[in-house]
Amino acid sequence: MSQAGRALVHAFESGALASARAFLLRAEPLPFKDVCAEQSFRPAYLRLKQTGWSVTPRIESGGYELGLVLLTKYKEENFANIARGWALLSAGGTLVCAGANDDGAASLAKHVAKAFGLADSLSKFHCRVFWLKRSVRRPPDYWRDLASLQPVGDGSWKSQPGIFSWDRIDDGSALLARHLPDDLSGHVADFGCGWGYLGREILARSSGVARIDLIDAEQRALEAARANLADPRAAFHWLDLAVEPAPAIYDAIVCNPPFHAGRAAEPALGQGIIAAAARALRPGGRFYMVANRGLPYEPQLKANFASFETLADNNKFRISRAIR
């Protein structure tokens, strides 16, 4: 249980809040009953399922007396989730938000107080819990807009908060795109596709690609990727490649692997993706990867591939090509 989760539980155990039929956004296992959990991040979704929770990647219908939101470190995502939470409440319902002080929860509480007015708040476990009543005051338009796909980049792309580099083309992905060949063919995959930038670049330059699978652990990323790749060759898969098998065996795989869990760097996340890519490539298949150059991925590439080489290194990112 996260510190924010502990603080949220404390708010109910202390009597500051009363239980009711509720939803929980960005859910984690907490000792609550009669809760509909929303979790769009596949590893967390699978953990909730394994512990017996009723969980969905997105709650669509409302009318709840109580809403619970576990805040993240991303301000725009929190704005979007608060706006969505407000919309899921019945009139007079209570929306409770909990987040770590290190992630800016105290600052966010001030924004919410200005927009809605707060019913109350408390501090516990280096976290802030605050709540509001649904009244005639509506979320700011900007917050409500963030709860759906938004134009980004040159306007031809759509994305939303809750996705890595949601509002811009990531520098590492842009560098990888510049070093991808134009002779990719057959069945290709993008492991950790985000909002679909690399997938669309591949389809635009490699006419020999018959099919491309875009795979991500974040359902919100796949929603954006579908909007960005209106191409019959593209298929979309919500998977945690660290524990779930890839859908096919591929001729080539591209990847900008994740390497963060919370605020801490976790190179093992990327190492798991590299191993998954090796398992999912045919013999002689190619793997193209961008990663922060300081991460220790070379031993993993050496262990899983017949050969690999560095295609580019700009002192921040390294582009590698490996052959199965």
Write the layout of secondary structure elements.
Elements lengths: L2 H11 L8 E4 L9 E4 L3 H9 L4 E2 L7 E7 L4 H14 E12 L4 H11 L4 E5 L2 E7 L7 H6 L3 E3 L4 E3 L11 H8 L6 E7 L5 H9 L2 E9 L2 H10 L5 E5 L11 E6 L4 E2 L2 E2 L1 H14 E12 L5 H7 L2 E7 L3 E7 L1
Parallel strand pairs: 1-2, 1-4, 2-3, 4-5, 10-11, 10-13, 11-12, 13-16
Antiparallel strand pairs: 5-7, 6-7, 8-9, 14-15, 16-18, 17-18
Helix pairs in contact: 6-7
User: What would CATH call the homologous superfamily of the largest domain?
Assistant: Vaccinia Virus protein VP39
> Can you list the strand order of the major beta sheet?
3-2-1-4-5-7-6
Alpha-carbon Rg, integer: 21 Å
Helix count from the secondary structure assignment = 10
Q: In the CATH hierarchy, what is the class of the largest domain?
A: Alpha Beta
Overall SS class: alpha/beta
For the sheet with most strands, the description reads: 7 strands, mixed
Shape: elongated
Summary tags:
alpha/beta; 10 helices; elongated; Rossmann fold; 18 strands; 324 residues
Can you put this structure into words, describing what you see?
The strands form 4 sheets. Strands 3-2-1-4-5-7-6 form a 7-stranded mixed beta sheet, sandwiched between helices. It has a 7-stranded mixed beta sheet with strand order 12-11-10-13-16-18-17. A two-stranded antiparallel sheet has the order 8-9. It is built from 10 helices and 18 strands. It has 2 domains: 143 residues, Vaccinia Virus protein VP39 (Rossmann fold); 173 residues, Vaccinia Virus protein VP39 (Rossmann fold), CATH 3.40.50.150. The protein has 324 residues and is α/β, with parallel strands linked by helices. Strand 10, helix 7 and strand 11 form a beta-alpha-beta unit. Helix 6 runs parallel beside helix 7. About 2% of the residues have low confidence.
